[in-house]
Design brief:
CATH class: Mainly Alpha
Strand content: under 5%
Helix content: 55-70%
CATH superfamily: Cytochrome Bc1 Complex, Chain C
Radius of gyration: 20 Å
Number of helices: 8
Number of domains: 1
Oligomer: single chain
Structural class: mainly alpha
Shape: globular
Order of helices and strands: HHHHHHHH
Largest sheet: none
CATH architecture: Up-down Bundle
Amino acid sequence: MSIIDWFLDRFRLKTLHRGIFDRDIPEGINYFYCFGGIAFTALLVCIISGLFLSVHYIPSEKEAYQSIIKIHEEVYLGKLIRGLHKWSANVLIVSIVIHSIRVFITKSYRPPRELNWIVGVLIFVVVMLESFTGYLLLWDQKAYWATVVGTNIAGSIPIIGETVLLLIRGDYEVTGKTLIRFYSLHILWFPLIMMILLWAHFHMIKRLGISKPL
C-alpha cells in the first residue's frame, strides 16, 4: 500500500458522511472519554473571550502593558473576560493531556486510527505554542524574561539556531517586533492551523467512530 493509499484509507475521503448525530457509541464508555469534548469547549471559550480582549489590546511596545491594565480597571467586565481567557486556556491544556493519556491507555492510537493520533499530537503542539505566544502579550518583566529563555532554547539548535531565533524574535533581542510577531501568531496563524487540524480530527472520529474500550 502506498503512502497516498494509506492516507486515503485512514482519512476516509472516499466514503460518505452519515448524519452529524448519527454515530455508534460502544459499550463501556465512561467519563474519561469526555475530556476531548471538554477541551473543545474550553477552546471555544478561549476564542470568544480572546475576540473581546483583542478589541481593547494594543500590541505595541509602549502601550501593550497599559492596555492590559485598562482591560482590568476600566473595561466593563474586562477582568472577568480576561480571567475566562486565562483559566479556559489552563483547562484546555489539562483536558488535552488527560485525553491523550486516555487514548494511550486504551490503545486508541492503533490502526486504523494512527493518523488521528498524529493529528491530535499536532493539535497539542499548536496549543502549547498558543500558550507560549500568548504569555508574551502581557508585556511585563515575567513575560519578557520567560520569552527570552524560551527563544534562547530555540536559538541553541545546532546549525540553524541563529536563523530560527531571528525568525521567531524578528531581531537578536526580544523587542516590539517580537511582540507583533507573537500577537500575529497568537490571534491569526495558530488559530487557523488549529481549525484545520480540528476539522481533520473530528472528520476522522466521525468516519472511524469512537474506539471501543479495552
